[in-house]
Amino acid sequence: MIEQEYIWIIGATGFVGKKLAKKLIPNSELVCFGNKRLDLELMEESNLIMSPLEDFDYDWFLRFPPKVIFHCARLAGSNPTKRLSAARKGAVANQKMIDFIQDLSNPPIVVYCSGTLMYGNQKEAVNETGALNPIAYAEQYQIAEKPWLVAQKQSALDIRFARPAWILGADSWFYHYFLKPAFETGTVPYYGTGQQKMSILSVEDCAGQLFHCYRNGSPKFDYNLYSFAPITQIEFAQKIGQHLHLETEAISYAETEKRFGQTEAAALCSNIPVYSQHQDWKAQYRNQFDNLEALLIHALAEFKKEASMYT
């Protein structure tokens, strides 16, 4: 008898994990782990288990032995102190999971969803060989990530880090730092000098490229996730303004820090253009959106659709 192999998503009720789950639901034996936010569609279409990362029940490995684990979970915190505390709890939970997986007779592939803030500011576009020098949110996030980084180097486990660039969706940073201020003030903001470069992909293509890391990636390799050539933030704001028929407005670093805090200012003003050393791998994936213009049109339409549900 052949034992069923399952695809796991830890953090399946979050921004990226949920999109990945809904992409895979039709064709996969999917096991989704969520925390706090219950999703009725995932309950109906998959095995949805509410199991917090810091209190994970390892008996699920016996019931649903995974072929691959997509790790999209990150313990949240509303400020640097709380994020630091959450990251430390996450590190303990991640190390516990690593210790358990290492003892399995057939350890799963692990695709860990990280982020390009781990690279820190760059003068030129950086690929997966770039040294890690985390800034902003990543200063805390890297604490929880570290056990997986160590295990990738020191163990036989097949751990692959996926590092998405700016993930654009109807919600997320796109709404909170660009659309919402635009609707409130009548101008589209850009932060700092506006010359900082952004690599961008849709949340849909983030999910697709995550799966591509598993299906077409190589053991213990890392992958930068992005869709388009880097664009300056002022150019990005201008593109939004064209669709909303609004002008742009410069928000200085000092004002950005005053409005949102030091961590947010560091992230919004970061210069982290990326590319991939895995060009063959990259060429095998077909983006849902062929260009940034098409993505912006889609994201704005999705936002308007969601907004209309609450008006």
List the helices and strands and how they pair.
Elements: E1 6-10, H1 15-24, E2 30-34, H2 40-45, E3 47-50, H3 60-63, E4 66-71, H4 80-102, E5 109-113, H5 138-154, E6 159-164, E7 166-168, H6 172-185, E8 187-191, E9 197-198, E10 200-202, H7 203-216, E11 223-225, E12 231-232, H8 233-244, E13 247-251, H9 253-260, H10 262-268, H11 279-284, H12 292-308
Parallel strand pairs: 1-2, 1-4, 2-3, 4-5, 5-6, 6-11, 7-10, 8-13
Antiparallel strand pairs: 9-12
Helix pairs in contact: 1-7, 4-5, 9-10
Report on the architecture of this protein.
By secondary structure, the chain is α/β, with parallel strands linked by helices. The protein is 44% helix and 17% strand. It is built from 12 helices and 13 strands. It folds into 2 domains: 6-165 and 201-225, NAD(P)-binding Rossmann-like Domain (Rossmann fold, 3-Layer(aba) Sandwich); 168-199 and 229-274 and 290-308, UDP-galactose 4-epimerase, domain 1. Helix 9 crosses helix 10. The longest helix is centred in the N-terminal third of the chain and has 23 residues, at 80-102.
Distance between the termini: 54 Å
Order of helices and strands: EHEHEHEHEHEEHEEEHEEHEHHHH
Number of domains: 2
Count, helices: 12
Give the C-level CATH assignment of the largest domain.
Answer: Alpha Beta
Summarize, please:
This protein has 12 helices and 13 strands. It has 311 residues and is of the alpha/beta class. The chain has 2 domains: 6-165 and 201-225, Rossmann fold (3-Layer(aba) Sandwich), CATH 3.40.50; 168-199 and 229-274 and 290-308, UDP-galactose 4-epimerase, domain 1, CATH 3.90.25.
